């Protein structure tokens, strides 16, 4: 048995116009799989890198998209955790999210409670798990912690700021524009530094009485690394979790010695394995979403057929996040 559906198919790298809606055939779910009728798929910068060819991680022709939400249509042999009608969310590093109907390994799916908007859930799921892992596992934040959240007006950055604040920390955020600064303040930052205009480390030391921060969460990379490093307190931790401005140049580890500081480069996946950890982390995130504890908005919704428009908006740095309505 198979099912007729539609999906965005990328046949060769290119601009947004390379994303074309096509008719596809979806097989019945096999052992350990579920058939999902999707309602919304997230649009991430990762998807842009895949589409452009910067990341050659999607075999072509292929269907892009890392994360989506929907409802289970059917289950394959051996699947006991889900039943038709169940609402689920998932992240799949093998892609396939830009589709109306798809088959998914059941171990990737997590229950999604009712009451959370489909678009909000999928737009913030990966970002939320990342922020949660950063402040709870990579460098546990607690009452009394002093945190520097670089790019606190960005997607993950604002969640890092809010989650740190919820855990009792003093949060210093940085932002590259007045608009992003407003977002950072709304996310709970106690202080916001305009990192393109001010010396971040000098301002941090002024705000902390020369102490510095316990941890700097930095996804900007090349442009902010030195400021993050100089902002650390004794035994501080620079968590470098992205490089939006480019990779960090070669770095002499002996520079960490005077403060007994540390630098780490975490990725999400080890922090949401095994499956029990994925389930507990997802449940915690969805509970925070449902309670209204997180600053979750959408920059725009696009029909699946206009995936190109969503990519163009994201590349133009329009205020996101963006989702595709499947």
TrEMBL record:
<dbReference type="InterPro" id="IPR036291">
    <property type="entry name" value="NAD(P)-bd_dom_sf"/>
</dbReference>
<dbReference type="GO" id="GO:0035925">
    <property type="term" value="F:mRNA 3'-UTR AU-rich region binding"/>
</dbReference>
<dbReference type="Pfam" id="PF00107">
    <property type="entry name" value="ADH_zinc_N"/>
</dbReference>
<dbReference type="GO" id="GO:0070402">
    <property type="term" value="F:NADPH binding"/>
</dbReference>
<dbReference type="InterPro" id="IPR013149">
    <property type="entry name" value="ADH-like_C"/>
</dbReference>
<dbReference type="InterPro" id="IPR020843">
    <property type="entry name" value="ER"/>
</dbReference>
<feature type="domain" description="Enoyl reductase (ER)">
    <location>
        <begin position="14"/>
        <end position="324"/>
    </location>
</feature>
<dbReference type="GO" id="GO:0005829">
    <property type="term" value="C:cytosol"/>
</dbReference>
<keyword id="KW-0521">NADP</keyword>
<dbReference type="InterPro" id="IPR013154">
    <property type="entry name" value="ADH-like_N"/>
</dbReference>
<dbReference type="Pfam" id="PF08240">
    <property type="entry name" value="ADH_N"/>
</dbReference>
<protein>
    <submittedName>
        <fullName>Alcohol dehydrogenase zinc-binding domain protein</fullName>
    </submittedName>
</protein>
<dbReference type="InterPro" id="IPR047618">
    <property type="entry name" value="QOR-like"/>
</dbReference>
<dbReference type="InterPro" id="IPR011032">
    <property type="entry name" value="GroES-like_sf"/>
</dbReference>
<dbReference type="GO" id="GO:0003960">
    <property type="term" value="F:quinone reductase (NADPH) activity"/>
</dbReference>
<keyword id="KW-0560">Oxidoreductase</keyword>
């Amino acid at each position: 048995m198979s099912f007729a559906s539609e999906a965005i198919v990328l046949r060769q790298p290119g601009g947004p116009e390379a994303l074309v809606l096509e008719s596809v055939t979806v097989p019945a779910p096999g052992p350990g799989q579920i058939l999902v009728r999707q309602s919304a798929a997230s649009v991430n910068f990762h998807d842009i890198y895949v589409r452009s060819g910067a990341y050659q991680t999607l075999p072509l022709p292929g269907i892009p998209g890392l994360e989506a939400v929907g409802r289970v249509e059917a289950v394959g042999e051996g699947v006991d955790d889900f039943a038709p009608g169940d609402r689920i969310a998932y992240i799949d590093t093998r892609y396939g999210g830009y589709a109306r109907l798809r088959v998914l390994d059941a171990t990737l799916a997590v229950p999604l409670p009712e009451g959370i908007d489909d678009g909000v859930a999928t737009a913030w799921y990966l970002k939320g798990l990342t922020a949660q892992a950063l402040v709870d596992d990579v460098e546990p934040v607690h009452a009394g912690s002093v945190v520097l959240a670089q790019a606190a007006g960005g997607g993950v950055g604002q969640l890092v700021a809010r989650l740190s604040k919820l855990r009792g920390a003093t949060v210093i955020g940085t932002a590259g524009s007045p608009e992003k600064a407003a977002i950072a303040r709304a996310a709970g930052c106690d202080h916001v530094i305009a990192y393109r205009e001010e010396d971040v480390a000098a301002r941090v030391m002024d705000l902390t009485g020369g102490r510095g921060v316990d941890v700097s969460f930095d996804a900007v990379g090349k442009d902010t690394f030195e400021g993050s490093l100089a902002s650390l307190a004794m035994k501080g931790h620079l968590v470098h979790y992205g490089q939006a401005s480019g990779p960090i140049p070669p770095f002499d580890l002996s520079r960490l010695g005077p403060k007994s500081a540390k630098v780490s480069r975490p990725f999400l996946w080890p922090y949401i394995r095994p499956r029990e950890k994925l389930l507990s982390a997802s449940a915690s995130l969805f509970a925070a979403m449902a309670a209204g504890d997180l600053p979750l908005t959408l920059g725009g919704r696009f029909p699946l057929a206009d995936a190109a428009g969503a990519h163009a908006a994201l590349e133009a740095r329009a205020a996101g996040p963006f989702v595709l309505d499947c």
